[in-house]
Design a protein that fits this description.
Elements lengths: L1 H22 L2 E3 L17 H5 L2 H7 L7 H6 L2 H14 L6 H12 L9 H9 L3 H12 L1 E5 L7 H9 L7 E6 L1 H5 L5 H6 L10 H18 L1 E8 L10 H17 L3 E5 L1 E2 L12 E2 L5 H9 L5 E5 L5 H10 L3 E3 L9 H15 L15 H26 L6 H21 L1
Parallel strand pairs: 1-2, 2-3, 3-4, 4-5, 5-8, 8-9
Antiparallel strand pairs: 6-7
Bound molecules: D-fructuronic acid and zinc ion.
Length: 418
Amino acid sequence: MQTDNFETSRAQLAARVNTTVNQTPVFDIHTHLYDPAFGSLLLYGIDDLLTYHYLVAEVFRYTEVPYQTFWKLKKTEQAELIWKHLFLEHSPISEACRGVLTTLNKLGLDVRERDLPKIRKWYAEQAPDTFVTQCLNTANVRKICMTNSPFDQIERKVWEKGFTRDERFVGGLRIDPLLLDWPAVATELQADGHHVETELNQKTISGIRHFLTKWGEKFASNYLMVSLPPSFSYPANDATSNILDEAVIPHCIETNQPLALMIGVKRAVNPQLELAGDGMGRAELQSLENLCQRYPKAKFLCTVLAKENQHELCVLARKFPNLHIFGCWWFTNIPHVIDEMTRLRFELLGLSVTPQHSDARVLDQLIYKWSHSRAIIANILTEKYSDLSQAGWQVTDTEIERDVQSLFGGAFEQFCQR
Ligand code: FIX
Ligand code: ZN
């Protein structure tokens, strides 16, 4: 009898939590999507969904088509090859494959038919501008942070020309080449009108600061970001540490913007796979500890790629209020790891985290990435609230709403404003 009561109240709790998690709009704090004003840079549709680099990596598990031949194919032909191998010849159980189906299904398409031409026809009938709103509404995303790079010549042209911004798409200043490719990148800063030399002297540092200010303002950036290799080490006697100390961190403190460190990517492990060829490794988080310790006035956002680093990262965040951890990045964005990481974070950090970002590169991916993550987060939250009820603490609907808003962007916005 008591078990029955428990089951009923647990099911009721789950329903309340699910409703709130599904109805709370998300601020997606890291994506590779663009404001619609960027035109063809904002990818969407079935061919972009199918040629997502996660699926490109997977198709080479099955096909013997040489890399070079694959890259010479048109996007539609690449998509057809991926559809054939990953969806028709094998059941599409990987997370990235499943994601395509969730997306189509939630957009109202019948995936049972396995009819690629019909899916293409449906997409061709969608008006691009209303489709943006349709995707954001279906995914229930209120705001999207872009990844804006002053080193990307195509993107730069749009910024330089100017456009009316869509308020749902906010800026983020990406600085990988500045931190990882000095002095080679000095010529790009020079061409952009900044007085820098290859030597990191006072003149160069002030030129770099000028560069950061210019692009930060143009993008109206919310934070600065960089992806770092597992070998990232700080402090070190190298250009990366030097530029961090002298230019990037002072700029972040002065403009009150966090610096997002995404640590653990090994670029071009298999260069023939192009964008799909990056791998990963376990990071040495002592460097992050050193940064948080040395710069209490700076704010750091961090996500790490290795599953093995997640526990250590949570413990670091317990020690440093200037560290906010976010997202299940890339290879960790699979259900069983999301589940494990989210539990770990909630149990060590309570609600002072941003459990997920989408990293979407194709607009429609917002739909599956958020739908899959919401289900996991809701399930864990239900379990946590249920544990509290065992101690006599009943959460109210208002408290559940408050908590979910915080997880879905509120805590991040507070951290940024601090
Ligand atoms: O460095 C990053 O921002 C990564 O997220 C990407 O470079 C990566 O290719 C990706 O799409 C992961 O989801
Ligand atoms: Zn990314």
